[in-house]
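Please produce the structure of this protein holding 5'-deoxyadenosine.
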Amino acid sequence: MSKRYHIVTYGCQMNVHESEKLAGILRAHGYTEESASPEEADIVVFNTCCIRENAENHAMGNIGALKKVKRARPAMLIAVGGCMTQQEGAAQRLRKKFPFIDIVFGTHNLEEFGDLLARKAAQKKALVAVPERESAVREEDISYRTSYPNAWVNIMYGCNNFCSYCIVPYVRGRERSRSPEAIVREVRGLLAEGYREITLLGQNVNSYAPECGMRFPQLLRKICEGQGKFRLRFMTSNPKDFGEELIDTVAELPQVCKLIHLPVQAGSDRILKLMNRKYTAEEYLKKLESLRKKVPGCEVTSDIMVGFPTETEEEFEQTLSLVKRADLAAAFTFVYSPRSGTKAAAMSGQIPEEVKKERIMRLVELVNAQTREKSAKYLGKTVEILCEDHDEKRGLYLGRDEYGRMGYFPSGDNCIGQFVQMKVTDASGISLYGERADAAGEEHK
Ligand code: 5AD
Ligand code: SF4
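Below is the modeled complex.
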């Protein structure tokens, strides 16, 4: 009988992609069916995140909620992995709090999850396997994907930057890059299978890959060489390494989407220095100026944090001012969350929660207003959407344009996986609504 699995994923795209890898491993080990809820599953895997405290609290709450199910069905397996377990002492703390967990694994041994399943089957006792250090890059064989027509492709792992607020270097280890040959082979294979959008993933893609004798712009060129139409995205870029050669490459390659995610974090130079970001607000703006000059129409999105230790009202206002001057199309906004073991967590001058809350509200309001204002300009225009899915409830197809904006439209034929021309008829919110403006759409009017 086929066994059922359920994966709960927290955090970034890297984790979403790693959950695909876990699903592939589970499928190869007899868990051939995905269950809609954890309650019905034979194995539940939590792929956790620890970048902010609330990500950890979510996971803890959901793991705790399975206690009753596990009591009623002791044969159900519960596995917890990802960034949260990779923190020092975390595996033991987890096991103590939730003794019913069967397997604890880390970010460094995700590929061995199949072996862990086999080892657990041979022992009654819980299995705790969190390696202290990262291993070298292993070749990836991804047998299962969940995001057609988009595909994630890892190009590097880890981070060497040690931004003072960030736990990532501690739980993901130092930078390691995959070989250009392996990456190009994977991308070509995906394109041949019909994938239409590739997102290259890494904590700091611009520092790809001295050990492979190739830099990131060259990798982009190699990937696109001789290829036809598809969309190529990458994240995340660190502004300190975002240079002219990369800007020229973005301008030169038609496949690279003219949307760059470039996290700035803050608008005050004093705070940026304390964050160990290694650029100033002016330097950031200069890079955007060059980008927009060489890549006309290029949009920029960002990550922004409020409430870093010692941030004053004036410094927060400098962040607001930067959001405006940078003309950001959208931004992920975060309240600073102290992470144990990082430099910033030990700083004096932590900002009270009420002040952080008040600042994030003002920031979100500004970012949303800017995003809406940019959306409104789309009214009456025709955009190219890569259709991703069909929303049964609304009876509409949906997908994104080159700039990452979600577009919804009716269609007589199933166009998932196709590029569709959509004439925008409603651009009042953050998403766009419209109708097909291509030949296939005409036929169905
Ligand atoms: N608190 C709040 N936000 C954080 N980020 C990273 N660490 C923290 C933290 N301790 C944010 C940064 C980063 C994004 C992925 O998460 O903005 O770019
Ligand atoms: Fe964290 Fe900075 Fe590395 Fe990004 S670049 S993962 S924010 S340490």
